Structures are given as structure tokens and as C-alpha cells.
Amino acid sequence: MQSRRQRAVLSAQSRPQLKRHVRLQFDPVRNAWAVLSPEKVFWPDEVSLDILRLCDGQHTVPQMVDELAGQYDAPRQDIAPDVEEFLQDWSDRFLVTL
């Protein structure tokens, strides 16, 4: 009998963090950051990397959005949906814990 994994759903109280088996590492050969996971490597763009760096288990989603809005000098309401979609997607891929 197989048990199904319940999908974690992002909320304002979520404090995203990278799963234990996931890490950020700089690749000097490519001069780029990589997200390493067992048998997978992701090459995040600059914005994705900034979101992932805030996935420390300390920041709530609204705090992450506020920090990124300040960093990019962008309206909070414009970036919040993109940040939330990114975090939910990475949670669905088992890379981020909500």
C-alpha cells in the first residue's frame, strides 16, 4: 500500500528553507551558483538565487517579499505573486520546506 505525500501549501506564516539534501554552491568553472540536490543540478537566475538565499527558515514569506521589494526597488504587490509561485513550485519539487 502506497501512501501519498500531502502537498505543502504556502501561507503567510510559512518560513521556507532548503531541504536537508539541497544546497547552494558556487561553481568557479562556470562562474555561477548551482542548487545541488541528489541526482539534480539547477542553475538559478539572479532573482531565483536571491529568493533561495532567503530560504533560511527564519524569514516568513511576507518578510521575504519585503526584503526583495527593497532590494529590487519594486512594488511589493508586483513581486509577491512571483515569489509565492516560485516558493510553491520549489516546494512541489521537494527542494524547499514550507
From TrEMBL:
Keyword hit for Magnesium: no
User: Which BP terms from GO are recorded?
Assistant: pyrroloquinoline quinone biosynthetic process
Single GO molecular-function term?
quinone binding
Pathway the protein acts in: Cofactor biosynthesis; pyrroloquinoline quinone biosynthesis
Which keywords appear in this protein's UniProt record, sorted alphabetically?
PQQ biosynthesis
Entries under InterPro entries matching the protein: PQQD (IPR008792), PqqD_bac (IPR022479), PqqD_sf (IPR041881)
Q: One Pfam family name from the record?
A: PqqD
Q: Which NCBIfam families match?
A: PQQ_PqqD (TIGR03859)
Note the subunit structure: Monomer. Interacts with PqqE.
Q: What is this protein called?
A: Pyrroloquinoline quinone biosynthesis protein D
What is the source species?
A: Rhizobium azibense
